[in-house]
Hints:
Order of helices and strands: EEEEEHHHHHEHEHEHEEEHEEHEEEEEH
Largest sheet: 7 strands, mixed
Bound molecules: 5-S-methyl-1-O-phosphono-5-thio-D-ribulose
Radius of gyration: 20 Å
Shape: globular
Structural class: alpha/beta
Number of domains: 2
Strand content: 15-25%
Oligomer: single chain
CATH topology of the largest domain: Rossmann fold
Number of helices: 11
CATH architecture of the largest domain: 3-Layer(aba) Sandwich
CATH class of the largest domain: Alpha Beta
Amino acid sequence: MLIDRKSYRTIWHDKVLEKVQIIDQTKLPFSLEIISLECLDDVLEAINSMQVRGAPLIGATAAFGIYLAYRELKDKTKIAEAAAKIKNTRPTAVNLFWAVDKMMGKINHSIDKNIMQKTLLEEAEKICESDVDACKKIGINGFELIKKIHDNKKNTVNILTHCNAGWLATIDWGTATAPIYLAKKNNIDIHVWVDETRPRNQGASLTSYELNHEQVDNTIITDNSAGLLMQRNQIDLCIVGADRVTYTGHVANKIGTFLKAVIAKEFRIPFYVAIPISTIDWNTRNYNDIAIEERSDNELRKITGLDNENRIKTLDIYPKNSKVYNPAFDITPKEFVQSLITNKGIIKPNEDDIAKLKDD
Ligand code: MRU
């Protein structure tokens, strides 16, 4: 997608530099900085510090992480240790584990190491391409829902989204945003309400930023505003992404998602979750078994912005001795989800329908 009319992806391998390149998302929306990942430690740092974030992008970065670890270490035990370290970075996004397992499944220690290294690079690139393809298909499937509402309403379609399930959370297109970008390209009049998404503000800093660059009309709201807007008929549908969907249909997504789903159900506003198949957790039945990441106090205690001289500043905003609690995700039980918009079609969030999506 576009930043200042130039096309970008969130991660790519530069053949000339022989480095993996990423957009450093901790610097957005204030500055666009491309940085290199050259070794396992760079990858661990990028995922831990959220220079890359969003379930599909975390998965793709983890895949490149296995390639870089092999290039650096080659040794069987050390690669297995590297895989464990990558899996240990962030616990909730299931794409991370999916991608590491997929890459590790390719490793054969008895073949030529240069050939193996090349195979791993190709596999990581394949994971990126298949994510782009999945997001495009999510876009095509979700577009029909937006179009239907537009055909009935014959006026602007107002969509609520939470956090950033945009192209910055994937490789390109995004999950929740892919139908929105397609609607825009098809001249459907749309407007997006963007939840700010405290504490890290991925909605305000990333979703609004990317929608602006694609010229999609959007308005940032506080995380507490959606109820009022729904009550006033200012939201036609909600589309969010997910970090993990159990094979029984429960959705783990950025903290605050559940509240939006509950209020949407109260007002009979359809609440959709857009995901590629790689976000389905085929091993977990009950949502209480999903690990919910708890992040640092500082994400709540501090806020980063620009001062009057356009310098990036971080400030303390809480009383120093107050306690804080910072769970990063919540669970939306399947009863609150209208449908899942997947790359293989729009389906109900239940075990039977999800089972049909499983790759052979
Ligand atoms: O903590 P993050 O930024 O990695 O969280 C990911 C998200 O932005 C969301 O929860 C998103 O809606 C799902 S990822 C497409």
